[in-house]
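Milestone 3.1: sequence recovery, worked example.
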């Protein structure tokens, strides 16, 4: 059997180049098809990671902890105490990179020209730098110094709408602990540049400064956590739930449904693309192989007349297809690897910043090799290509020796 395979292997390789043009066409179809699958898989993964990082790093983090009911009614009546010893121990676990406490309350900002609704966020600046990208997005002025800093950080677009700016004073209004309207003036010490939604609806000040503003002692609205990409955030959430069973602990998938849906879609898109590409490849492979079989009907008939069994004819044609598709797969792997290497330093999409902001996409994509995908999709394409080529091979195996002899005469 091994000798037969060796003989048929060399014979199959020779037969492929009897019509080099047709072989090259098939190689192009297979290699380009596999290249597109491997490249788009890496591109989609990079897009998903960049979008996730761009969105989660602003305010959401990997997960958040709130008092029960706060997410449905984020008011001053649904706050919680700072983390106790058990929760603090869980928050300091190795699978959590950083965490921070915040006080978020709905309010109103008033300038000399306009009044707009906002969410007032009191933060600990030192911890916030570890969990949020907002501190690094301050483009004018400065970020907050400490928890008692009573300056205010506004978004560029919000400042534009309010017709105010750096060094000006605005008035914040929000409900206090007595159920009355608290009102206090804050100096604008910094302006940040983020997505339009964050710029328009969030303003930042020191946590204790906001607590004093509304008459609170040490209550907070949320705890935000950040975990490494390699950590299963659902496991982390379960550990936090065990440490604080009376609190509402959610992962980013529960907090940002749009991002979670986009992540799921991106993961499934590559398989849709695989189906489309394979359908096109199947058409090309079947057409070229059928043409080869029709042109070699006389050859196959003579082989049958000389005593070759039909299953050996089937094996010969199948091996030709396997070798040809295998070479195409190798070319596709090389092309995909070269393309990903070329773009690994980053694909800058900042020219499409407005559209990316709408879809919460990252502006720089870093493509990486996906060894598992390279192996999985390459083998899958090779096997599917062989299966498709079995139909022409089966027709070749049915060649009639009598028809071949008639064509000779």
């Amino acid at each position: 059997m091994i000798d037969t395979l060796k003989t048929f292997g060399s014979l199959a390789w020779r037969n492929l180049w009897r019509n080099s043009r047709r072989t090259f066409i098939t190689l192009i179809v297979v290699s380009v098809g596999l290249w597109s699958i491997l490249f788009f898989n890496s591109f989609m993964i990079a897009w998903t990671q960049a979008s996730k990082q761009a969105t989660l790093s602003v305010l959401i983090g990997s997960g958040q902890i709130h008092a029960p009911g706060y997410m449905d009614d984020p008011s001053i009546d649904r706050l919680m105490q700072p983390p106790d010893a058990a929760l603090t121990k869980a928050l300091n676990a190795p699978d959590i990179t950083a965490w921070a406490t915040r006080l978020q309350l709905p309010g109103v900002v008033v300038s000399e020209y306009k009044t707009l609704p906002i969410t007032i966020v009191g933060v600990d600046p030192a911890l916030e730098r570890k969990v949020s990208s907002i501190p690094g997005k301050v483009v004018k002025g400065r970020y907050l110094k400490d928890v008692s800093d009573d300056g205010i950080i506004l978004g560029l677009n919000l400042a534009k709408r309010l017709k105010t700016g750096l060094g000006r004073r605005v008035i914040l209004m929000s409900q206090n602990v007595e159920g009355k309207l608290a009102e206090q003036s804050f100096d604008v010490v910094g302006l940040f540049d983020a997505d339009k939604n964050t710029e328009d609806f969030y303003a930042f000040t020191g946590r204790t400064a906001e607590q004093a503003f509304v008459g609170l002692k040490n209550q907070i609205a949320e705890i935000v956590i950040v975990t490494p990409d390699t950590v299963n955030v659902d496991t982390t959430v379960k550990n936090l739930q065990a440490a604080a069973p009376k609190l509402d602990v959610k992962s980013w998938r529960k907090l940002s449904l749009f991002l979670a849906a986009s992540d799921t879609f991106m993961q499934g898109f590559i398989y849709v693309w695989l189906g489309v590409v394979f359908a096109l490849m199947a058409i090309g492979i079947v057409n070229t192989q059928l043409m080869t079989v029709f042109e070699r009907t006389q050859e196959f008939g003579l082989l049958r007349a000389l005593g070759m069994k039909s299953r050996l004819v089937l094996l010969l044609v199948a091996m030709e297809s396997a070798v040809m598709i295998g070479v195409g797969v190798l070319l596709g792997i090389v092309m995909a690897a070269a393309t990903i290497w070329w773009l690994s330093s980053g694909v800058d999409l900042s020219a499409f910043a407005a559209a990316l902001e709408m879809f919460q996409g990252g502006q720089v994509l870093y493509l990486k090799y996906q060894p598992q995908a390279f192996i999985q999709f390459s083998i899958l394409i090779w096997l599917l290509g062989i299966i498709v080529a079995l139909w022409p091979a089966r027709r070749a195996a049915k060649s009639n020796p009598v028809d071949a002899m008639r064509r000779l005469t």
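The first strand starts at residue 63 and ends at 66. The two ends are 35 Å apart (CA to CA).
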